[in-house]
Structures are given as C-alpha cells and as structure tokens.
C-alpha cells in the first residue's frame, strides 16, 4: 500500500526529521521538560543535532554537559552542518570558561571562528574573557577590538577593564590620599584623575549603549538574578547578560566602582522602560536594598564592638 504524501507516516519518514518534529511539537507546551524531550528525540535518531544541542544546554551546570557537547560536535562534523556546529562549539567554549578552564575555552573558540568570520554566535566575547582570565591583555585587546565585535556592549566593557588594568597603577583612592609626592608639579591624585579620563569616556559609551548596565554592575548579587530567555539589544536583558559574563573581572576592583558612583549617569525615564525590563530591574533594586541593609547592620555591629557595648 502506498503512503499518502499529505499525512505523517512514521515508517516512511526520515528518523532525523521525525526526531526534529518531535522536539518542535513538544516544546510548544509551556512547562515542557527539555532534557527528557531531547533524550526521547535521540532515541528516535541519535543523528538529530537539535536534540544534542538541547540536551547539552539542559546540562549546562552539570559535568554531563561536556560529554554531550563533544558527542553533538562529532555528529555535526559528520553531517557537515556549520550552523549547529557553531552553536555547539560556542556552548562548549562558554562551558569551559564558566568552569574556570580558559585554555580549553580558547582552544574551542579558536576552532569555531574560522567557520564563520562574521562570528554570528559572538564567540569573541568568550575568547576575550578567557584571555583576560589568563591576564593576556595584548591578545584580549586584539580580540575585543575586532571589527565583528568592537561595537558591542561587551567589547566596551572589556576594553574599559583592559584600560584599567594596564594604564592605571594598582593604587586605591585611600592610598592616593596618603601620598605626598608630586609628578611634574601635579599631585598624584590629580595625575590619577587625568589617567582615568579615557576610562570615563568608555563608561560614557557603555551607558549610552545600555543605560541599565550601571545598575547591574553596582549590584554585588547580579549573578543570582535569572537571565531572561530572550536577550534584547540595548535593554535590561542584555545588560544583565553582559554583567554576569564580566562580573568576576570587576567585583573586586574598587576604582571602577567609585568612577561609576561619581560619574553623572543619565537614567531612562519610566516611559522608556519596557514592560519586559521591569521584573529584572525590580529584582536588582530589591537585592541592592538587602545589600545596603546588611552593610548598615555590619557597620552598626562594628561600632558597638568598638564602644564595648555589644
């Protein structure tokens, strides 16, 4: 009996296509278990790249993710599928970076970039961060200023960090106040501010690119805020995403935070804030208030201890 071409027939359908259709149909449900869907799709066909990608992403915080990405990459190479191979390599590189293996992250991303010089996955972001993690500022700067990445918010943050680490000495503002030397007739503190001018310009560019960035950067608990599924350019979702990637580079640096505090930021008006941005901004405000209250409580405790009244 011949099959009707207008109906879905499991026995005459390519298993890979059937597995892909299964994923597409299953993900329509709002509370779908992506890991179980991916596993069932792989039971239909272990050549379904979308299933390998979905499974690896569901394992992102677990050791199984590395093995899953490597298996998916192997299948993608067999099928010569560049678009999915790019996503799998990017996911593996990001996984290595997040788990503190910058050498492996660099090796993976350098394997990815020749596949598409336009870098659709924005993999140079992970590459730049990995170089910074190794304190290889020359390669990090070359990567951050690449034409396909230079205009992004993440690149500007990286360039600002590089400027801070390479152009400004390891002195805190408190140490500056204690120094009596003068350089060419100027106090050291005045010289320090002049050195910061280029860095301030970078901060101004960052703020114009995304006015929400400073709020997240100043939040010491930004890492615990859940990133939205959809990341929109020049809105709070992008600012939170960039902050999370760069937070480990910045959170111990006192001078950039002080520059952020003293710089005249232009905040968006209520009418300019999108509805999708409001939950993330509300959460960061609540966390900043908790952090402020905790600091006040600690300060009061220290004061009472010093007065021998505690």
Automatic annotation (TrEMBL):
SUPFAM superfamilies in the cross-refs: TPR-like
InterPro entries reported in the protein's UniProt record: TPR-like_helical_dom_sf, TPR_rpt
Keywords on record: TPR repeat
Database matches in Gene3D superfamilies: Tetratricopeptide repeat domain
TPR repeats: 86-119
Region feature Disordered, mapped onto this chain: 291-310
UniProt keyword annotation of Transcription regulation present: no
The name this protein goes by in its record: Tetratricopeptide repeat protein
Organism: Rubritalea spongiae
């Amino acid at each position: 009996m011949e099959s009707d071409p207008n109906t879905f027939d499991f026995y005459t359908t390519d298993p890979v296509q059937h597995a892909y259709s299964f994923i597409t149909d299953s993900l329509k449900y709002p509370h779908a278990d992506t890991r179980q869907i991916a596993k069932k799709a792989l039971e239909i066909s272990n050549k379904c790249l979308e299933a390998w990608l979905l499974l690896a992403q569901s394992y992102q915080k677990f050791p199984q993710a590395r093995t899953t990405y490597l298996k998916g990459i192997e299948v993608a190479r067999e099928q010569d599928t560049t678009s999915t191979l790019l996503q799998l390599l990017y996911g593996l590189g990001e996984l290595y970076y997040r788990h503190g293996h910058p050498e492996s992250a660099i090796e993976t991303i350098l394997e990815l970039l020749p596949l598409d010089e336009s870098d659709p996955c924005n993999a140079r972001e992970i590459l730049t961060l990995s170089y910074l993690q190794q304190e290889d500022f020359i390669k990090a700067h070359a990567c951050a200023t690449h034409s396909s990445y230079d205009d992004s918010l993440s690149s500007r943050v990286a360039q600002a960090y590089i400027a801070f680490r390479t152009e400004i000495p390891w002195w805190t503002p408190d140490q500056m106040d204690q120094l009596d030397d003068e350089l060419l007739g100027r106090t050291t503190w005045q010289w320090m501010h002049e050195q910061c001018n280029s860095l301030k310009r970078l901060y101004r560019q960052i703020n114009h690119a995304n006015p929400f960035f400073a709020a997240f950067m100043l939040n010491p608990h930004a890492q615990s805020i859940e990133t939205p599924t959809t990341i929109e350019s020049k809105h709070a979702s992008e600012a939170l995403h960039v902050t999370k990637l760069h937070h480990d580079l910045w959170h111990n640096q006192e001078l950039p935070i002080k520059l952020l505090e003293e710089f005249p930021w232009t905040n968006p008006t209520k009418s300019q804030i999108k509805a999708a941005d409001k939950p993330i901004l509300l959460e960061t405000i609540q966390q900043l208030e908790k952090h402020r209250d905790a600091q006040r409580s600690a300060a009061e405790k220290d004061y009472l201890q010093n007065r021998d009244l505690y």
